[in-house]
Design a protein that fits this description.
By secondary structure, this protein is α/β, with parallel strands linked by helices. It has two domains: 158 residues, Rossmann fold (3-Layer(aba) Sandwich); 312 residues, no CATH class. The chain contains 16 helices and 18 strands. The protein has a six-stranded antiparallel barrel, surrounded by four helices. Helix 3 links the parallel strand 3 and strand 4. The longest helix is centred in the N-terminal third of the chain and has 22 residues. The radius of gyration is 25 Å and the shape is globular.
Length: 494
Amino acid sequence: MNNIPEAKIGVVAVSRDCFPESLSVSRREALMKAVKEKYPELDVYECPICIVESEIHMVQALEDIKKAGCNSLVVYLGNFGPEISETLLAKHFEGPKMFIAAAEETGDNLIQGRGDAYCGMLNASYNLKLRNVKAYIPEYPVGTAEECADMIAEFAPIARAIVAISDLKIISFGPRPLNFLACNAPIHQLYQLGIEIEENSELDLFEAFNKHAGDPRIPEVVADMEAELGEGNKKPEILEKLAQYELTLKDWVEEHRGYRKYVAIAGKCWPAFQTQFGFVPCYVNSRLTGQGIPVSCEVDIYGALSEFIGTAISQDAVTLLDINNTVPADLYAEDIEGKFDYTQKDVFMGFHCGNTCSRKLGVCEMKYQMIMARSLPIEVTNGTLEGDIAPGDITFFRLQSTSDAKLRAYIAQGEVLPVATRSFGSIGIFGIKEMGRFYRHVLIEKNFPHHGAVAFGNYGKALYEVFKYIGVPVEEIGYNQPAGVRYPTENPFA
């Protein structure tokens, strides 16, 4: 995936001048050794130029990590730390930053070898707040070299997502379809997050598509589609048009990304799309998303942003699904009850027409869009990728701007069950603990739309920290409360 950044993390050790600098030096060396041994895949740079004790050291360290190409920063308190210089370093570094601190090593060396970084973290956090500087601080930010290495590894996907957001452009096509006010898109918060938005007419897209007729690259894309679909290639007659559309979107991205490195797309897919283009774009959306360029349906701008954040964190394809329908009682009784630890209200079906990457489906086939074909000729609804979503861990989540331009989010971890859906589209049966209560007291109560992003794995911890970092109030990050923990809006007598 070349549409998301890698986190290059600069580690800068700090020291208060009345504490032994040697503590920060030796502890930094031990930390870097642990990182290289435990996480050789991480790109972590050790700032060798100085241990930061003063504002002058701060400037030197800042210039060094910038020159090294670091886009993320770890401020490491090897001892108590200089609260002014270390927070100035964070203030002037343009990128995500984390503060962590060294634990004491041994009871045999608590005179000259005691660093008091446990205390220093308190002053660091106080000074960060005074300067209004955002920084990620782990759940327990003080540890041994090995434990701090784990913290850096957990910081990497958080840093990757924040760097990605800061250099993102979202390209949208067309207004939302009629009766889709739920996917509202007030763009004020996009700008507050540092995101650029380019809104286009679907007529602009149609013109660009027509100009790609006969593009010499089409046969190569068709061949790639045929290889991907294999025996699921049930609509070979539509592949040439789909390839033409894929090239249109990719060329648009390259011609319109401007000064931004990363792009996501909020696409139009109905009601006039099918009759004018002659197909539905679901399969192309799935392919681009699988290549790291998330494409949301129904001009869902915050859905595209949510997908992009999930892609940056997971470094994998995500999808966007409707939180769609209940699991019938007979299906639940036959295939789920007694086999999985979920009540009937814990399970539901997540569905979209055919936008999920083929490698996230068990078996897939190219088909027509059944819902649209109820009112249109079947031949203009070809282009969906249908199949049950492969079982495994998932995270259902969304970042949303409310109609009055306030940020809100939710996160729920669960799984796709290995149970046949007996239905159509890109679809799966999802199990999320206490889903019924979460549905009522987060999704409905907080006015979230029906679209949710799905990352394939458990990424709730990183998502929560990203949402906090970018400014979502913690009270506005919903999650599925465990049984016995009441939501504020839950009737205590129910």
